[in-house]
């Protein structure tokens, strides 16, 4: 063998090795980016339940203040469909990577600004107005993050492991929730005056560090070969949203309804947190630690659910998990309101960490595989964000539905369980795609 052929062989082997590492690298990039985005998103939810009623809405009675703070949390979800249309358009026009870098900077900057925002005592009614505007920017960013990360990872993965690698986007979400809660636990233990004056700002200011790490990891990731291929063939849609709504409106509608499962997440992470601590005297650290345990468990179970989905299909795992959530909501509330710490931990680990982890791990591949590459970013972004509107307002709706007494949670459990059943019914109408080649996804209409 000549020196030239040997060098060529080594170069070819090196290129092949680098190519084989791309799915893992894409999964890492998506994990870290989602961790930042949802660290920022979850610290707002925690603060809305525990802090903001007293800091930014202190000029009204406590019950109204709580509702207004939860409303500000939900408003972030109003911006998400708008962000989905805008960011989905550019994600399908110029590529996944550029848009994902933009979402990082937008989310990190908005969160840092919240941490620096003067309270209502300092600037009056301007404080909650600015807070709400910054929350809207968070919503715009979140609209493009998960869908872009899912598209990036899916399109770098082999056919046999798309669900597994794509699930790491949602594992990043769990890691962000864990990180946010771990930061809030010592902060929430501060004396009340210190907590409300400066302590609550610490988690928001720390987002600058997470932003730096995520940006450095993400900026070197190459564009996906699937997108480069449609770009080289001049198949990029001029107006992806128009093509999406013309050819894929049933799939968009299906994703919207399937995404109602996210009501479980915001009900446990935001509503149950405030409900258990204010109505039943459960210590704030207990509920926060329960959230950590649930999310740590999900970090273990989600990749396992995704591996199963790569073997038996997306639909059985997704539908089974969704219906399991509908059933377990009732014992979850019984345990959370019992005041027993071990029972509360067990409830969070079983519902959030095991059962909800199934649809949470599967939806990134399940939804994205309904669309072809030229509208995939837009399809998943618009579908999920319209569906997530219900999740965004679940804490507010739950607070208005809750009754008096020990069983006041029953209307809330019924409401979220109904959302789960509707989600499962929509998923049952979808095409099973786990054996479909990535080049053929979404092309049954061609």
TrEMBL record:
Transmembrane intervals? 41-60, 67-87, 99-117, 163-186, 198-217, 252-275, 287-308, 317-336, 342-363, 375-397, 409-428
Q: Give the Pfam families listed for this entry.
A: MFS_1, Sugar_tr
Checking InterPro entries in the record gives: MFS (IPR011701), MFS_dom (IPR020846), MFS_sugar_transport-like (IPR005828), MFS_trans_sf (IPR036259)
Its annotated compartments are:
Cell membrane
User: Domain Major facilitator superfamily (MFS) profile spans what residues?
Assistant: 26-435
Keywords, alphabetical? Cell membrane, Membrane, Transmembrane, Transmembrane helix, Transport
Is the Transmembrane helix keyword given for this protein?
yes
Q: Which GO terms describe its molecular function?
A: transmembrane transporter activity
**Does the record's keyword annotation contain Transmembrane?**
yes
Q: Which domain of life is it from?
A: Bacteria
Task: Look up and give the membrane topology term.
Answer: Multi-pass membrane protein
Query: What is the designated name of this protein?
Result: MFS transporter
Q: What organism does the UniProt record list as the source?
A: Bradyrhizobium huanghuaihaiense
Q: What is the lineage of its organism?
A: Bacteria, Pseudomonadati, Pseudomonadota, Alphaproteobacteria, Hyphomicrobiales
